Protein backbone atom coordinates (compact mmCIF):
# COMPACT_ATOMS: atom_id res chain seq x y z
CA UNK A 1 0.00 0.00 0.00
CA UNK A 2 1.35 3.42 -0.94
CA UNK A 3 1.07 6.08 1.77
CA UNK A 4 1.85 9.78 2.02
CA UNK A 5 4.94 10.15 4.23
CA UNK A 6 5.90 13.84 3.99
CA UNK A 7 4.45 17.07 2.67
CA UNK A 8 6.05 20.50 2.33
CA UNK A 9 4.96 23.83 0.88
CA UNK A 10 7.25 26.00 -1.24
CA UNK A 11 7.73 29.30 0.64
CA UNK A 12 6.89 31.48 -2.34
CA UNK A 13 6.21 31.43 -6.06
CA UNK A 14 5.05 28.75 -8.47
CA UNK A 15 6.80 25.40 -8.76
CA UNK A 16 7.49 24.47 -12.38
CA UNK A 17 9.80 21.45 -12.40
CA UNK A 18 12.00 19.24 -10.20
CA UNK A 19 15.00 16.93 -10.21
CA UNK A 20 16.88 15.02 -7.50
CA UNK A 21 20.50 14.89 -6.36
CA UNK A 22 22.28 13.18 -3.48
CA UNK A 23 25.03 15.10 -1.67
CA UNK A 24 26.99 13.49 1.17
CA UNK A 25 24.27 10.89 1.50
CA UNK A 26 21.50 13.52 1.74
CA UNK A 27 18.71 13.51 -0.81
CA UNK A 28 17.87 16.99 -2.13
CA UNK A 29 14.95 18.00 -4.32
CA UNK A 30 16.00 20.69 -6.82
CA UNK A 31 13.13 22.88 -8.03
CA UNK A 32 12.64 25.45 -10.77
CA UNK A 33 10.75 28.37 -9.23
CA UNK A 34 10.86 31.27 -11.69
CA UNK A 35 13.15 33.16 -11.52
CA UNK A 36 15.14 31.22 -8.90
CA UNK A 37 16.24 27.72 -8.06
CA UNK A 38 15.28 26.15 -4.74
CA UNK A 39 16.33 23.01 -2.94
CA UNK A 40 14.23 21.12 -0.42
CA UNK A 41 15.86 18.77 2.07
CA UNK A 42 13.22 16.22 3.14
CA UNK A 43 15.09 15.08 6.26
CA UNK A 44 14.86 18.57 7.78
CA UNK A 45 11.96 20.05 5.78
CA UNK A 46 14.29 22.89 4.82
CA UNK A 47 13.94 25.10 1.74
CA UNK A 48 16.91 27.08 0.37
CA UNK A 49 16.74 29.68 -2.39
CA UNK A 50 19.58 30.21 -4.90
CA UNK A 51 20.08 33.21 -7.15
CA UNK A 52 21.38 32.34 -10.61
CA UNK A 53 23.56 34.71 -12.62
CA UNK A 54 22.34 36.06 -15.93
CA UNK A 55 23.55 33.46 -18.45
CA UNK A 56 24.36 35.75 -21.37
CA UNK A 57 27.81 37.00 -22.21
CA UNK A 58 27.87 40.83 -22.55
CA UNK A 59 28.16 40.72 -26.35
CA UNK A 60 25.26 38.26 -26.60
CA UNK A 61 23.15 40.42 -24.29
CA UNK A 62 23.87 43.53 -26.35
CA UNK A 63 23.00 41.71 -29.58
CA UNK A 64 19.72 40.49 -28.14
CA UNK A 65 18.58 43.51 -26.08
CA UNK A 66 20.34 46.39 -27.83
CA UNK A 67 22.40 47.69 -24.91
CA UNK A 68 25.12 46.28 -22.63
CA UNK A 69 24.04 44.66 -19.35
CA UNK A 70 23.79 46.87 -16.26
CA UNK A 71 23.67 46.11 -12.53
CA UNK A 72 19.93 45.53 -12.95
CA UNK A 73 20.58 42.72 -15.44
CA UNK A 74 22.72 40.46 -13.27
CA UNK A 75 20.21 37.71 -12.47
CA UNK A 76 18.59 35.02 -14.58
CA UNK A 77 14.88 35.78 -14.89
CA UNK A 78 13.35 32.89 -16.81
CA UNK A 79 13.87 29.50 -15.18
CA UNK A 80 11.00 27.02 -15.43
CA UNK A 81 12.83 23.82 -16.42
CA UNK A 82 15.52 22.16 -14.33
CA UNK A 83 17.92 19.22 -14.48
CA UNK A 84 20.62 18.60 -11.90
CA UNK A 85 23.71 16.51 -11.14
CA UNK A 86 26.59 16.44 -8.68
CA UNK A 87 29.97 17.16 -10.28
CA UNK A 88 33.14 17.10 -8.16
CA UNK A 89 31.03 17.40 -5.03
CA UNK A 90 29.09 20.46 -6.22
CA UNK A 91 25.52 20.66 -7.49
CA UNK A 92 25.27 21.71 -11.13
CA UNK A 93 21.87 22.71 -12.48
CA UNK A 94 20.78 23.14 -16.06
CA UNK A 95 17.63 24.76 -17.32
CA UNK A 96 15.89 27.69 -18.92
CA UNK A 97 12.44 28.56 -20.20
CA UNK A 98 10.60 28.49 -23.53
CA UNK A 99 11.92 31.98 -24.39
CA UNK A 100 15.47 31.37 -23.13
CA UNK A 101 18.44 29.35 -24.34
CA UNK A 102 19.66 26.50 -22.14
CA UNK A 103 22.36 27.23 -19.55
CA UNK A 104 24.15 25.51 -16.68
CA UNK A 105 25.08 26.98 -13.29
CA UNK A 106 27.01 26.09 -10.19
CA UNK A 107 24.06 26.10 -7.81
CA UNK A 108 25.78 27.37 -4.66
CA UNK A 109 27.59 30.31 -6.28
CA UNK A 110 25.06 30.97 -9.04
CA UNK A 111 27.91 31.26 -11.55
CA UNK A 112 27.29 30.25 -15.15
CA UNK A 113 29.21 27.18 -16.31
CA UNK A 114 27.85 26.75 -19.84
CA UNK A 115 25.44 28.64 -22.05
CA UNK A 116 23.94 27.48 -25.33
CA UNK A 117 24.30 29.51 -28.48
CA UNK A 118 21.56 32.11 -28.91
CA UNK A 119 20.72 30.45 -32.22
CA UNK A 120 19.45 27.42 -30.27
CA UNK A 121 16.43 29.48 -29.25
CA UNK A 122 14.12 28.82 -26.30
CA UNK A 123 14.06 25.64 -24.24
CA UNK A 124 11.38 23.01 -23.77
CA UNK A 125 11.89 19.66 -22.06
CA UNK A 126 15.16 19.08 -20.15
CA UNK A 127 16.41 15.97 -18.37
CA UNK A 128 19.38 14.46 -16.56
CA UNK A 129 20.50 11.10 -17.90
CA UNK A 130 23.32 8.80 -16.81
CA UNK A 131 25.28 7.06 -19.56
CA UNK A 132 28.33 4.88 -18.91
CA UNK A 133 28.33 6.17 -15.34
CA UNK A 134 28.52 9.85 -16.36
CA UNK A 135 25.85 12.56 -15.99
CA UNK A 136 24.56 14.33 -19.09
CA UNK A 137 21.95 17.05 -19.54
CA UNK A 138 19.53 16.88 -22.45
CA UNK A 139 17.85 20.10 -23.58
CA UNK A 140 15.22 20.52 -26.28
CA UNK A 141 15.52 23.74 -28.27
CA UNK A 142 15.57 24.28 -32.05
CA UNK A 143 17.04 20.78 -31.93
CA UNK A 144 17.69 18.41 -29.04
CA UNK A 145 21.15 18.60 -27.50
CA UNK A 146 23.12 16.46 -25.04
CA UNK A 147 25.65 18.18 -22.78
CA UNK A 148 28.36 16.58 -20.66
CA UNK A 149 27.46 17.97 -17.21
CA UNK A 150 31.08 17.71 -16.05
CA UNK A 151 32.48 20.03 -18.72
CA UNK A 152 32.73 23.75 -18.11
CA UNK A 153 32.72 26.52 -20.68
CA UNK A 154 35.86 28.65 -20.83
CA UNK A 155 35.27 31.48 -23.26
CA UNK A 156 33.33 29.31 -25.66
CA UNK A 157 35.65 26.30 -25.60
CA UNK A 158 34.74 23.83 -28.31
CA UNK A 159 34.86 20.86 -25.93
CA UNK A 160 31.49 21.86 -24.48
CA UNK A 161 29.71 21.79 -27.81
CA UNK A 162 26.77 19.42 -27.32
CA UNK A 163 25.85 16.37 -29.35
CA UNK A 164 22.74 16.74 -31.51
CA UNK A 165 20.01 14.20 -30.87
CA UNK A 166 16.44 13.53 -31.98
CA UNK A 167 13.58 16.01 -32.18
CA UNK A 168 13.14 19.54 -30.82
CA UNK A 169 11.24 21.53 -28.18
CA UNK A 170 7.98 21.29 -30.13
CA UNK A 171 8.03 17.49 -30.44
CA UNK A 172 9.79 15.94 -27.41
CA UNK A 173 7.55 15.29 -24.40
CA UNK A 174 9.49 12.59 -22.53
CA UNK A 175 13.12 11.51 -22.18
CA UNK A 176 14.65 8.39 -20.62
CA UNK A 177 17.99 6.60 -20.87
CA UNK A 178 19.32 3.12 -20.28
CA UNK A 179 20.90 0.11 -21.94
CA UNK A 180 19.39 -1.87 -24.79
CA UNK A 181 21.13 -4.98 -26.12
CA UNK A 182 24.28 -3.90 -24.32
CA UNK A 183 24.33 -0.42 -25.88
CA UNK A 184 23.54 2.91 -24.19
CA UNK A 185 20.38 4.48 -25.61
CA UNK A 186 18.12 7.47 -25.07
CA UNK A 187 14.37 7.07 -25.49
CA UNK A 188 12.30 9.99 -26.74
CA UNK A 189 8.54 10.25 -26.51
CA UNK A 190 6.91 12.61 -28.98
CA UNK A 191 3.81 14.74 -28.61
CA UNK A 192 2.99 13.44 -32.09
CA UNK A 193 2.33 9.93 -30.76
CA UNK A 194 5.63 8.21 -31.49
CA UNK A 195 8.64 6.81 -29.63
CA UNK A 196 12.24 6.92 -30.90
CA UNK A 197 15.28 4.94 -29.71
CA UNK A 198 18.55 6.86 -30.16
CA UNK A 199 21.87 4.98 -30.03
CA UNK A 200 24.44 6.99 -28.06
CA UNK A 201 27.49 5.42 -29.72
CA UNK A 202 26.35 5.74 -33.34
CA UNK A 203 24.38 8.96 -32.67
CA UNK A 204 21.51 7.72 -34.79
CA UNK A 205 17.87 6.81 -34.34
CA UNK A 206 17.79 3.01 -34.51
CA UNK A 207 14.03 2.65 -34.22
CA UNK A 208 11.03 4.94 -34.39
CA UNK A 209 7.52 3.58 -34.06
CA UNK A 210 4.00 4.92 -33.52
CA UNK A 211 2.51 5.02 -30.04
CA UNK A 212 -1.22 4.49 -29.39
CA UNK A 213 -1.33 7.28 -26.78
CA UNK A 214 -0.38 10.98 -26.88
CA UNK A 215 2.95 10.68 -25.08
CA UNK A 216 3.46 12.71 -21.89
CA UNK A 217 6.50 10.81 -20.60
CA UNK A 218 8.59 7.69 -21.23
CA UNK A 219 10.81 5.26 -19.34
CA UNK A 220 12.77 2.02 -19.66
CA UNK A 221 12.06 -0.98 -17.44
CA UNK A 222 13.01 -4.63 -17.15
CA UNK A 223 9.77 -6.63 -17.12
CA UNK A 224 9.85 -10.44 -16.96
CA UNK A 225 13.56 -10.29 -17.81
CA UNK A 226 13.04 -8.20 -20.96
CA UNK A 227 13.74 -4.52 -21.59
CA UNK A 228 10.55 -2.62 -22.33
CA UNK A 229 9.71 0.95 -23.23
CA UNK A 230 7.12 2.43 -20.88
CA UNK A 231 5.00 5.25 -22.27
CA UNK A 232 2.38 7.28 -20.42
CA UNK A 233 -0.24 9.59 -21.83
CA UNK A 234 -3.93 10.30 -21.71
CA UNK A 235 -5.15 7.98 -18.96
CA UNK A 236 -2.91 5.05 -19.88
CA UNK A 237 0.45 3.50 -19.16
CA UNK A 238 1.62 1.10 -21.86
CA UNK A 239 4.52 -1.28 -22.51
CA UNK A 240 6.33 -1.72 -25.81
CA UNK A 241 9.12 -3.83 -27.29
CA UNK A 242 11.93 -1.46 -28.41
CA UNK A 243 13.30 -4.10 -30.79
CA UNK A 244 10.07 -4.65 -32.73
CA UNK A 245 8.00 -1.55 -32.00
CA UNK A 246 5.08 -3.71 -30.88
CA UNK A 247 3.03 -2.51 -27.92
CA UNK A 248 2.21 -5.38 -25.57
CA UNK A 249 -0.10 -3.77 -23.06
CA UNK A 250 -2.36 -0.85 -23.68
CA UNK A 251 -3.65 -0.37 -20.10
CA UNK A 252 -5.24 0.46 -17.84
CA UNK A 253 -7.09 -2.70 -16.89
CA UNK A 254 -9.16 -1.03 -14.18
CA UNK A 255 -10.79 1.63 -16.32
CA UNK A 256 -13.40 2.62 -13.71
CA UNK A 257 -10.71 3.75 -11.27
CA UNK A 258 -9.30 6.12 -13.89
CA UNK A 259 -12.72 7.64 -14.58
CA UNK A 260 -12.86 7.16 -18.33
CA UNK A 261 -15.52 9.38 -19.90
CA UNK A 262 -16.74 8.10 -23.23
CA UNK A 263 -18.76 11.26 -23.97
CA UNK A 264 -15.62 12.95 -25.31
CA UNK A 265 -14.22 12.25 -28.74
CA UNK A 266 -10.60 11.16 -29.10
CA UNK A 267 -9.28 14.69 -29.62
CA UNK A 268 -11.03 15.94 -26.51
CA UNK A 269 -9.70 13.04 -24.45
CA UNK A 270 -6.13 14.05 -25.21
CA UNK A 271 -6.78 17.47 -23.71
CA UNK A 272 -8.79 16.36 -20.70
CA UNK A 273 -7.70 17.75 -17.39
CA UNK A 274 -7.29 14.23 -16.01
CA UNK A 275 -4.55 13.27 -18.48
CA UNK A 276 -1.18 12.03 -17.23
CA UNK A 277 1.41 14.82 -17.13
CA UNK A 278 4.57 13.03 -15.89
CA UNK A 279 5.98 9.61 -14.96
CA UNK A 280 8.97 7.86 -13.45
CA UNK A 281 9.86 4.17 -13.63
CA UNK A 282 11.69 2.18 -10.97
CA UNK A 283 11.77 -1.06 -8.97
CA UNK A 284 10.01 -1.55 -5.63
CA UNK A 285 10.49 -4.78 -3.72
CA UNK A 286 11.89 -6.43 -6.84
CA UNK A 287 8.88 -5.41 -8.94
CA UNK A 288 9.00 -2.89 -11.80
CA UNK A 289 6.59 0.00 -11.23
CA UNK A 290 5.59 3.27 -12.83
CA UNK A 291 4.43 6.27 -10.81
CA UNK A 292 2.40 8.89 -12.67
CA UNK A 293 1.13 12.38 -11.93
CA UNK A 294 -1.80 13.98 -13.73
CA UNK A 295 -2.98 17.39 -14.84
CA UNK A 296 -5.68 17.38 -12.17
CA UNK A 297 -3.25 16.57 -9.35
CA UNK A 298 -3.73 12.81 -9.09
CA UNK A 299 -0.92 10.34 -8.32
CA UNK A 300 -1.07 6.67 -9.40
CA UNK A 301 1.19 3.64 -8.93
CA UNK A 302 1.22 0.93 -11.61
CA UNK A 303 2.63 -2.60 -11.50
CA UNK A 304 4.32 -3.20 -14.84
CA UNK A 305 4.71 -6.94 -14.21
CA UNK A 306 1.01 -7.34 -13.39
CA UNK A 307 -0.03 -4.87 -16.10
CA UNK A 308 -2.41 -2.99 -13.83
CA UNK A 309 -2.98 -0.01 -11.59
CA UNK A 310 -2.20 -1.07 -8.01
CA UNK A 311 -2.42 2.08 -5.86
CA UNK A 312 -4.45 5.24 -6.31
CA UNK A 313 -5.59 7.44 -7.81
CA UNK A 314 -4.60 9.68 -4.89
CA UNK A 315 -6.36 12.94 -5.64
CA UNK A 316 -6.71 14.74 -2.30
CA UNK A 317 -3.20 16.18 -1.90
CA UNK A 318 -2.06 18.14 -4.99
CA UNK A 319 -4.50 20.91 -5.78
CA UNK A 320 -3.16 21.50 -9.29
CA UNK A 321 -1.17 19.74 -12.02
CA UNK A 322 1.65 17.42 -10.98
CA UNK A 323 4.68 18.81 -12.83
CA UNK A 324 7.22 16.15 -11.91
CA UNK A 325 7.72 12.79 -10.22
CA UNK A 326 10.92 10.98 -9.25
CA UNK A 327 11.44 7.66 -7.49
CA UNK A 328 14.37 7.52 -5.07
CA UNK A 329 15.75 5.99 -1.89
CA UNK A 330 15.09 8.00 1.28
CA UNK A 331 16.35 6.65 4.60
CA UNK A 332 16.50 3.13 3.20
CA UNK A 333 12.98 3.12 1.77
CA UNK A 334 11.81 3.52 -1.83
CA UNK A 335 9.74 6.67 -2.19
CA UNK A 336 8.13 8.69 -4.95
CA UNK A 337 8.55 12.46 -4.78
CA UNK A 338 5.94 14.52 -6.59
CA UNK A 339 5.80 18.27 -7.17
CA UNK A 340 2.72 20.26 -8.11
CA UNK A 341 1.95 23.66 -9.53
CA UNK A 342 0.33 24.36 -6.16
CA UNK A 343 3.85 24.58 -4.71
CA UNK A 344 3.58 21.38 -2.69
CA UNK A 345 6.22 18.64 -2.70
CA UNK A 346 4.98 15.27 -1.46
CA UNK A 347 6.90 12.14 -0.49
CA UNK A 348 5.07 8.83 -0.98
CA UNK A 349 6.27 5.67 0.76
CA UNK A 350 6.04 2.95 -1.90
CA UNK A 351 6.94 0.20 0.57
CA UNK A 352 4.18 0.87 3.12
CA UNK A 353 2.70 -2.45 4.21
Task: Provide an overview of this structure.
This protein has 353 residues and is mainly beta. The protein has one domain: Methylamine Dehydrogenase, Chain H, CATH 2.130.10.10. It contains 2 helices and 28 strands. The strands form 7 sheets. It has a 4-stranded antiparallel sheet with strand order 1-28-27-26, with no helix packed on it. It is globular. The relative contact order is 0.12. Residues 253-264 have low confidence and may be disordered.
Specify the structural class: mainly beta
Secondary-structure element string:
EEEEEHEEEEEEEEEEEEEEEEHEEEEEEE
CATH overall fold name: Methylamine Dehydrogenase, Chain H
Low-pLDDT residue spans: 253-264
Give the name of the CATH architecture.
Answer: 7 Propeller
Task: Calculate the mean pLDDT score and round it.
Answer: 87
Q: Number of helical segments?
A: 2
- Major sheet attributes: 4 strands, antiparallel
Briefly characterize the structure:
The protein has 353 residues and is mainly beta. The protein contains two helices and 28 strands.
Short key terms for the protein model shown above:
mainly beta, four-stranded antiparallel beta sheet, 28 strands, 353 residues, globular, Methylamine Dehydrogenase, Chain H
Topology:
Elements: E1 3-9, E2 17-23, E3 26-33, E4 36-41, E5 46-50, H1 58-65, E6 81-87, E7 90-96, E8 103-106, E9 112-115, E10 126-131, E11 134-140, E12 144-148, E13 163-164, E14 172-180, E15 183-190, E16 194-199, E17 204-210, E18 217-223, E19 226-233, E20 236-240, E21 247-250, H2 266-270, E22 276-284, E23 287-294, E24 299-303, E25 308-314, E26 322-330, E27 333-340, E28 344-349
